[in-house]
Amino acid sequence: MSVCVRVLSLTVRFVSAAGAFWAVAAESQPVDWLAPVDGSWQDAASWAGGVAPNSIATPVRLGLAGPYTVTSSSFTLHDTLTITNPQAALLIDGVRHAIYGDVRNQGTVLLNSDAELSFSNDALIEGGGEIQLDTDDPLQPAEIRGLSVQLTHASGHTIRGSGEIAASSTGFINDGVILADDPAQPLVLQGDFSGGGVFGANGATLLLDGATMTGARLNSQNGGAVVVGEGVVTFDGGRNDGAIELDPAARLFIDGVYTNNGVVSVFDFAQIDGDLISLRDGATVNGTGLFEFQDFLGGGGIKATGGVPGTVGPGQTLRGEFTLDGDLIVEGTLDPDGLPSDIEGDVVLGATSVTRITIDQTSADDIDVDGTLTLGGTLEIELADGYVPTTNRNVIFIDGEPGVELLGDFDAVVVPTEPAGWTYTVELVFGGVRVLIDPPPPCPADTNGDGLLTPADFNAWILAFNLQSPACDQNGDGVCAPADFNAWILNFNAGC
């Protein structure tokens, strides 16, 4: 008669006089996979003890050397999963696989469509291995799910592919790498995420679906992007070093200090309320990145909420068709880039801000003000590629609605240097700001009109005198007389 003895998990707590305690935990002996070939989890003969593991108190280990895959094809539950063999793989084939302990993984865990790796206790996922989610049917995604528990993804471990990772309100702490790398299907994050690891997109889409990202580091490469999906997504601190795209039905809330070193693209085809991005309770966006607004119906932009001014930091650029609302301090660059933009709140252009206005042959960038705008920083006036002014112009580029309040002035103005001699005069007028563009003054001493002052102009003046042509009149009295010779000498010496 054989006797099977199993050592159950044991936790002993010692309480000190001060009330503190420390714990010693003894895990059950893991059940080992014994077959050095591919096989089914449900094949009892392949496990030590001759029983396929299927109990919350049973830890499991794939440690046998050699390349093999263990396939779980029916609902299974167990305690800790340990894979010590880097060549070993666990395939969860379209079923739920419930773990009540940690995952210590040096190998590979594979989930295909409709497979679910669920955790019912707080758990640590660690090791040098990876979990691969492979979804070929978007209606039946591969899933990792925390059921009202906190999951910690340790440094050195990777979760990648396509499918869903659903975190509970107690959170998913990512100190490793979570990577979308399937061009055909997105990797979707739902719930609360934090940690010092990387959330990335490599040639694929990392979709944030109602997620809260606390201190999260986002990046992308090879054309991949992090997409803020429908509903509300919150960035509480953290940073972006890649490409972020906002769905037209998305709302992005930013809390605390957020660092944007990448590109945030806003596609607002249908929204009309102007607050796709909300800086809440004094939030600040710093870094050296770009917010690019592609807003075809008007309204996509940044709004400060909570009664405390939000700040767009010195290194940020807002480009395109944007709307600024609420109490905002802009220390970065406003660049309408040929599109109409709006200011609807109480906006202050700080000392480091740059307002970039481009003028072309028929029009100029236009910022409509329907709130309060305090001018400051630097105004940069540029000419569009290929445009060379030929006559004077009066261009209004900040246009206030009736009753609008325009305060302050720009601290500095930078104007084009070509073509030479043209002047640009910036004026505040009728609740707006305009620039007067004027050609260079005439140069009467350049009698031959070649743009240069040389002795040849003296001969040209003599010819003009003899012909009594207008170029002879150097003193502007309307008469060509010998006195114009002295005037020509004075004009020549004064230069142009």
Task: Describe the protein's architecture and organization.
By secondary structure, this protein is mostly beta strands. Among the domains are: about 290 residues; about 40 residues, no CATH class. It has two helices and 54 strands. It has a 19-stranded mixed β-sheet, with no helix packed on it. The chain has a 17-stranded parallel β-sheet, with no helix packed on it. It has a 16-stranded parallel β-sheet with strand order 7-10-13-16-19-22-25-28-31-34-37-40-43-46-49-52, with no helix packed on it. Strand 1 and strand 2 form a beta hairpin. The termini are far apart.
- How big is the Rg? 35 Å
What is the structural class?
mainly beta
Number of helices: 2
Q: Could you tell me how far the N terminus lies from the C terminus, measured between alpha carbons in angstroms?
A: 116 Å
Descriptive key words:
496 residues, mainly beta, 19-stranded mixed sheet, 17-stranded parallel sheet, 5% helix
How are the elements arranged and paired?
Layout: E1 10-15, E2 21-26, E3 31-32, E4 39-40, E5 60-62, E6 68-72, E7 76-78, E8 81-83, E9 88-92, E10 96-99, E11 103-105, E12 108-112, E13 116-119, E14 123-126, E15 130-134, E16 143-146, E17 151-153, E18 158-161, E19 163-166, E20 172-174, E21 177-180, E22 187-190, E23 192-194, E24 198-202, E25 205-208, E26 212-214, E27 217-221, E28 225-228, E29 231-236, E30 239-240, E31 243-246, E32 250-255, E33 257-260, E34 263-267, E35 277-280, E36 284-286, E37 290-294, E38 301-305, E39 310-312, E40 317-320, E41 323-325, E42 327-330, E43 333-335, E44 341-343, E45 346-349, E46 354-359, E47 367-369, E48 372-375, E49 378-383, E50 393-400, E51 405-408, E52 412-414, E53 423-429, E54 432-438, H1 456-467, H2 483-494
Parallel strand pairs: 3-5, 4-6, 5-8, 6-9, 7-10, 8-11, 9-12, 10-13, 11-14, 12-15, 13-16, 14-17, 15-18, 16-19, 17-20, 18-21, 19-22, 20-23, 21-24, 22-25, 23-26, 24-27, 25-28, 26-29, 27-30, 28-31, 29-32, 30-33, 31-34, 32-35, 33-36, 34-37, 35-38, 36-39, 37-40, 38-41, 39-42, 40-43, 41-44, 42-45, ...
Antiparallel strand pairs: 1-2, 50-54, 53-54
